[in-house]
Amino acid sequence: MSKKIKILILGSVILNVLLIGVIIGHVSHRLGREDYIKKHTQDIELKLPADKEKLFFKTMEKVHLENLKIHDQIRENRESVLSILTSPDFDETSYQTEAQKLHRLRGLIMKQLADAVRELAEQFDQEERKALSEYLRLPPPPPPGIKPPYHSGPPPHHEDPTPHHLP
Hints:
Layout: H1 3-45, H2 50-86, H3 92-123, H4 126-137
Helix pairs in contact: 1-4, 2-3
């Protein structure tokens, strides 16, 4: 075999191995995330009657859909903040304005979640509210492409009354 053919075959083998590694890595991350989300939802399913479980998931889905547009705005705003931060001439006023806008958007997401939890709490009895509280204490599922934590169970309890779980 000529030297050119050997180099082409070796290059092809290396590229194929890299491609297979990327595909396996991507699939494994997605599978881990789905298991983590499934465990999250099973925790509350076991403690709510079927009608309240349906109401819970319908409400959380509604909040999630409402917040999708805000998440897009947050991504755009975050890019704007980072652009200002990395520009040759740092403009503190622009940075503070954009950072405040980012904080308002994040606050809006939390407000919508808190309002949804309040609506649910009005319809739940004490035991169902306890199940809801336990669910909200769980850490949120990781974003796509991020591996879930290896430990399980709720984090240590703290006295922050703000719900931390975003669907």
